[in-house]
Amino acid sequence: MGKGVAITGMGIISAIGNNVEENYESLINSKTGIAKISKIDTIHKDAILVGEVAMTNTAFETQLGLEENSWSRTSLLAVTAAKEAVAQAQIKDINDCRTGLVSGTTVGGMDKSEQYFYDYFESDAAWKYINGLHAGDSTQKIAHQLGLEESFATTISTACSSAANAIMLGARMIKAGELDRVIVGGSDALSKFTINGFKTLMILSDTFNTPFDDHRKGLNLGEAAAFLVLESDDIVERDGKEVLAYVKGYANANDAHHQTASSDNGDGAVLAMEKALKVAGLEPNTVDYVNAHGTATPNNDLSEGRALLRVFKDNVPEFSSTKAFTGHTLAVAGVVEAVFSVLALQNNVVYPNLNFKPLCKNSIYCQKQSLKKKNSM
Amino acid sequence: MSDLKQELKEKIIEQLNLEDVSVAEIGDTDQLFGEGLGLDSIDALELIVMLDKDYGIKLADPKEGRKIFESVDTMATYIEANRA
Amino acid sequence: MANDYFIQAYSHIRNNQIWHNGESIFTADSADFSSFMKAAYKHFALDYGKFFKMDSLSKLAFMASNPLLNDEPEKNTALVMTNKAGSLDTDRKHQTTMNDYPSPAVFVYTLPNICLGEISIKHQLYSENAFFVFDSFNPSTLHDYANALLDSKKAEKVLCGWVDFEHQKHDAFLYIVSKSGTFEHSLETLNRLYQTP
Hints:
The structure holds three protein chains of three kinds. Chain A is α/β, with parallel strands linked by helices. Chain A has helices at 20-28, 57-64, 73-88, 110-115, 127-131, 136-146, 162-175, 192-200, 233-239, 267-280, 298-312, 323-326, 333-347, and strands at residues 5-13, 34-35, 50-51, 99-104, 153-156, 181-188, 221-222, 224-232, 245-246, 289-291, 318-320, 349-350, 372-373. In chain A, the strands form four sheets. Chain A has a six-stranded mixed β-sheet with strand order 5-4-6-8-1-9, sandwiched between helices. Chain A has a three-stranded mixed β-sheet with strand order 2-3-7. In chain A, 50% of the residues are buried. Helices cover 37% and strands 26% of the residues of chain C. Chain C has seven helices and eight strands, in the order βββααβαααβαβββα. The interface between A and C is medium-sized, with 13 and 15 residues.
């Protein structure tokens, strides 16, 4: 039963680059993508910093050959990253086996819907932006652009775990023999809706986010899209595919603590890590690096740090959060960081915890700030 | 000041739906979060809204709230000093 | 195919009345749902202050699950619930607060599955959970989902059912699916138990 799940392609667009290569260059050169907001006219523009994708909507429309102002930014990002992933996987005919698509998003086409909000009452001209609001809109557009016909395509909207859940679902469908190939990932564009929502929760930092730092003030929001191509052993063998990495283990768990906060002791994170290791058949001491969620909110990083201590005991591996580079990309965070983790494996590097000031009285928060090369096996 | 404290206790009970608690049960210096009344982060946000709505005080940093909302005493002192 | 699963216990809340395994355990002549829940809370001496912070849907699910989970030692009990109105009652309430000061405490309940979280927190269940929205009580989905969770050993027991709240109208029917019990876990049983407390 236990079939392998290979990663054969990756695509990403984020605040630190328009493709995999650019993202990696930024990561190893400690180049952050966090800056003042430039593409959204929000009253909070002087109070927050964000991780925006550099390309404008017009640039995307030209690149994808689309009519002006026809798609939400979430869809523009999604199709761009999904196409890169499929290209890297060197898929000639996407319908040559049972190919599925699982994509995560939190806001869907909100960027356009909110922009035309007051126009809907006046005329029907802006109505397409209401139709493009739902979470499945970008998924449909990816499927269409990739030429997927009559395939399994679904959308997951479970807030910041969306793309991680998309990877899980894709991997499980391959393991269960339901699909041969699944494109998994997510997309979220910045919107006022998101900015205002997080502003209300008072967890936005007014400066660069500082994951795991003792004086962390909260998160920076980011936008991104990223996708992985997952393929079964049979397809890898049939096409002689180069495998970038394998999805070995995964799990999600219930924290049973609070509607919005993580438990102080990281109960849910402990359960999820333990179950993922069990699914992978790996012992904790075989892990070299943990790419942490590390949103830089006081609550998340405390809970996650304690969870790491509980799972790895006095043998906590190197860990860092790349949110200081990209911002918190919400639905996409899980797959952005999956791409970064594959790159870490391929290049034997551990990314720095940007903006972290060592405070060495508490040993696990005493991580190095610079890039680290691991010895290859 | 003692009127304000009484008023705050009533508001806290009403705004945060503390049906099990009476005004007499909240001491002026009782801890509101953690051990004391057991309020949580969402309650803290509700208290921040209350400061704005009822006393015209805007808090930008929730960390400030930690000290202000320590007890009814500290809340009353802060409101007296800052109310619009 | 032989059915290996049974209904261990069930509960209903309708028209200001609570039933456990078909027997009425509490009723009150309350003017509205909130006072009915408060009366029930006092009657059962629940001592769980957080109850009053919950929205109506969570109170309904919490109160209906309470008799079923209070003496339930199995912590790997999954939660699978359904309804028609989603969290609409709370969504509307939140919309009215937006004209003035949006309330964070109302906002956190603007998802129907939060009621599963409240049950998990109270009974410390770290188990699987899912919430579905349907037009009406849909025993076949609940039946198949519960069986799949038990067959794949994701859970030892499953607390399932229907919890719907809108405009003061409340309708809860919850039951625990287990490896032993009085009633066979079948569509016929579920339809019959749903209709008659």
